[in-house]
């Protein structure tokens, strides 16, 4: 609910999701940094955040950054789908595909299984419960798509745009988790092949989101999925409360 609920708190009806997305990104990055400097550095065991940065290898950082880039690309489409089709359609389809795809690559190749296998490990979870969950998600996606089609049957607009945006979002987001996992030290997560501690991995992930938002979101502002084009001048017109609400969304995420 970090996206939909906090955006509803914005009083200005002209504050589009593209403008909101800037503050969401800032909130996400600052929270990751805050977590790394506090929870990721306090205590008597393990490396602190700065110690981890000093000894990390660039290959691990690369995977974490790439995970943030991939997630950000997909999330732009997901938020656009929510803006066009609503939360009840955009998130189950886009998020559902991402959940399933994180387990199965295009429903046939096991993406996360593959990462674990390459690391020479065996999947430790309950596979029966996992497959039941996958089946429930597939059913939910089909029902949401059918419901959206019926809802739009009496409207002039076609439902294809919102569904297509959600599908693209799901296909992109499905890859981000496996990439971030590869950046982490295997003592913290199954399938990890890198050297980063979780807080450093999350920070690098958030950095990947931050550095690519000017590219992805600027394009979204110039080619809006809904409504008129917006510019950075429109963003700077937002008041402090509006910007803080957007950052709250990133903090919750």
Quick tags:
12 helices; 253 residues; mainly alpha
How far apart the termini lie comes to 8 Å
In terms of DSSP E residues, the strand content is under 5%
From the helix content, strand content and strand pairing, which structural class follows? Answer: mainly alpha
Query: How large, in whole angstroms, is the Cα Rg?
Result: 19 Å
Give a short account of the largest sheet.
none
Quaternary state reads single chain
The rough form would be described as: globular
Number of helices: 12
Helix percentage: 55-70%
Order of helices and strands: HHHHHHHHHHHH
Q: Give the low-confidence spans.
A: 104-109
Q: Mind explaining what this structure looks like?
A:
- This protein has 253 residues and is mostly helical.
- The chain contains twelve helices and no strands.
- It has helices spanning 4-8, 17-37, 49-55, 58-85, 87-103, 111-118, 127-151, 160-173, 176-183, 198-222, 232-236, 240-252.
- Helix 4 (58-85) runs antiparallel to helix 8.
Concise account of the structure shown:
The protein has 253 residues and is mostly helical.
